[in-house]
Design goal:
alpha/beta, 6-stranded parallel β-sheet, Rossmann fold
Length: 361
Amino acid sequence: MSQTFIISGGGTGGHIFPALSIAWELQQRFPEAQIHFIGAKGKMEMDRVPAAGFPITGVPIAGINRQKPWKSWNVPFKLIYALWRCRSILKKRKPAVVIGTGGYASGPALFMAQRLGIPTLVQEQNSFAGVTNIRLGAKANLICTAYKNAERFFPAAKVRLTGNPIRKAFTNPLPDAAESKSALGFDPKKKVLLILGGSLGARAMNVQLAQSKDVLVKQGWQILWQCGKLYEAEYAHLSNKDVHVQAFIEDMATAYAAADAIVSRAGAGTLSELCLVGRPSVLIPSPNVAEDHQTHNARALSDKGAAILIPERELAQRFEVELAALARNKARRDRLAENIEKLALPRATEDIVDHIIELMK
């Protein structure tokens, strides 16, 4: 009889991509397995998961609107229905293990699995665990974490340090740096600065870059600027031979290979990629993320001398200064690259699936 696995997680790419990486690895190990996702209706997983080839059931679950709490009057009713729906799915499919990677839907899915006595595994991406995962982790069989010291949030005996699941492209060696610069239309003899604001874009980073791009070019940088699809119309016209503005970067392996330094938000998945590619990085955490996860993630790296942390409120004062120092000081770039690479955990996905198999026994 083929095995069944249920994976729940979504809301943002930071929860969906790890979930898909785990699903692909499970599929490799158990070609006959049934892998089914539970997601939140109306969230991005409802498109991304079927596009990746997996079935998904959406449940009506949402968080409380903190700006306009009166609009959240129906949240308790949605939660009750989501719990009932998850219970029905679990009883019908009888999964061997239920895996949660975070996001609204993973709460009711794992809670009901635990009530039904089904083994559960929580995958915590951030250095500072969220409230939902802390509660689920108390009764989960195992918690796979990306950072050390997770025992602050979870029962120590259940914690396994695995790292975050990463797309396969970044666990392989990167292409040649000079060839990658040429392929992107840059001078292979000059430094390239890669700017990553996330798939939608980061307003504060885009505003700062629009002001600073000419200064950065004078410092010796060529700039590959991923502005995000929300800001393409606003910034695409700023492209020239030294500054290439794109809404989205399809070939991230070539972009990483070309980069002499990277400026990025501090989402957990992105930071795991940065550790693997081993490039000096300047991190600008988003202040708008629940429980300030990005600041905690960035600090976990900067405290080890593995990245430069600039809070968004300090961008105007520090952005050009830090990039000028990086442009001048190759020894510092090398030191940051060496330190961030030490934190890489390239076998994360395989290790997590090993732990899932452990639970099946």
